[in-house]
């Protein structure tokens, strides 16, 4: 029986670059993508959007591949661990994804009601 303190099987905890986008092998690009988001999107919306466009779809694809309906920030940090680092902006990405989903459902509901 495996270690109960670890939410992921051991084979999913090591770094496997083949399951990630090509950028994963580019140290300079990944350094940027692993950096924290600026406090406010307006500081640099291009950088902000670039990170959201990378991490959002990657999180969704990774969860689908693993059959995960629910995932924690800690689990995502383990999955996306790279060269001794964790992505610092995943909390911001998750918040953005939730906000987008809530807005989409609200907009859809309003269009059905009107």
Given helix and strand content, the structural type is mainly alpha
How far apart the termini lie comes to: 55 Å
Helix share bin = 40-55%
Report the portion of residues in β strands: under 5%
What is the number of strand segments? 0
Oligomeric nature of the chains: single chain
**Radius of gyration over C-alpha positions, nearest whole angstrom:** 16 Å
Main sheet specs:
none
Question: What are the secondary-structure elements, in order, as H or E?
Answer: HHHH
Total DSSP helices:
4
Rounded average pLDDT: 81
- Globally, the shape reads globular
Unreliable stretches (pLDDT < 50, length at least 5) are 1-15
Key features of this structure:
114 residues, 54% helix, globular, 0% strand, mainly alpha, disordered N terminus
What's the short story on this structure?
The protein has 114 residues and is an all-alpha fold. The protein contains four helices and no strands. The protein is globular.
Describe this structure as you would to a colleague:
It is built from four helices and no strands. The model is unreliable at 1-15 (pLDDT under 50). It is mostly helical.
